[in-house]
Write a structure and sequence with these properties.
Layout lengths: L3 E3 L20 E9 L8 H17 L6 E5 L3 E6 L5 H9 L4 E5 L12 E5 L9 E4 L5 E6 L3 H10 L6 E4 L2 E4 L2 E2 L7 E5 L4 H13 L4 E6 L2
Parallel strand pairs: 1-11
Antiparallel strand pairs: 1-12, 2-4, 2-13, 3-4, 5-6, 5-9, 7-8, 8-12, 9-10
Length: 218
């Protein structure tokens, strides 16, 4: 599969109404939240941000009217209707999802290893991530980086080389840099595979959870 990075072409969670959710058939998960950093605290704002991230993930799975609420000081309760694959939901909701863009530094021992972190999900303007189609109707993912200079430096240094996209330590794709990008924007081509394009778009858009979640018994 050919995957490339090129210049872009133009192409209140706490108050939602959950009355339509059938609680008798709901799939329920209780999470305990802990900080990503050992010395940090679980704050109210972090819990609310995590609820918002979980709602976005549930909606990306096609789940309508997800009921996700803070429960106490460090717990989050999830109730979802019409879940057909509980394992997929658990995997998609609870993973930390730390997004990184990586290159090789010579210390790798396998072809799919990329040990040098060049940028992270925090370098992206997530609201600008979108699925588009090029002139031959192939799906691509347009992204925008906060720092034009940083993207230009990375793409110039790694021109013609892969810039791998990882979610946590899972390799998502390894697009080849096709040009020096100076305007802060890039297009990720996935060789015409619509599902791969959607996956990359969703992973970039959803980004990392503010808190680490551990599933506990209800």
């Amino acid at each position: 599969m050919s995957i490339t990075i090129t210049a872009c072409s133009t192409p209140g969670p706490q108050n939602k109404d959950y009355s339509g959710l059938d609680h008798k058939e709901a799939f329920v998960i209780m999470y305990e939240a802990t900080p990503m950093d050992g010395g940090a605290q679980v704050t109210k704002d972090a819990l609310i941000s995590t609820v918002q991230s979980l709602e976005a993930r549930a909606e990306a799975l096609g789940i309508s009217k997800p009921e996700i609420r803070v429960d106490g000081n460090k717990r989050i309760r999830v109730r979802l209707a019409d879940v057909t694959d509980e394992d997929e939901v658990r995997r998609s909701l609870g993973e930390p999802a730390f997004l990184t863009f990586r290159s090789k530094d010579g210390s790798e021992t396998a072809d799919d290893e990329y040990n040098a972190i060049e940028m992270t999900g925090s370098d992206l303007v997530k609201e600008e991530t979108e699925l588009v189609y090029n002139q031959v109707n192939e799906p691509m993912v347009n992204v925008e980086f906060k720092s034009k200079d940083k993207l230009a430096e990375v793409t110039e240094r790694l021109l013609g080389q892969p810039l791998a996209i990882f979610m946590d330590d899972r390799l998502i794709s390894a697009p080849i840099i096709q040009g020096v990008l100076t305007d802060g924007r890039a297009s990720i081509s996935v060789g015409g595979d619509l599902e791969d394009a959607k996956q990359i778009r969703d992973l970039i858009s959803l980004g990392a959870l503010p808190l680490k979640l551990t599933e506990i018994e209800n």
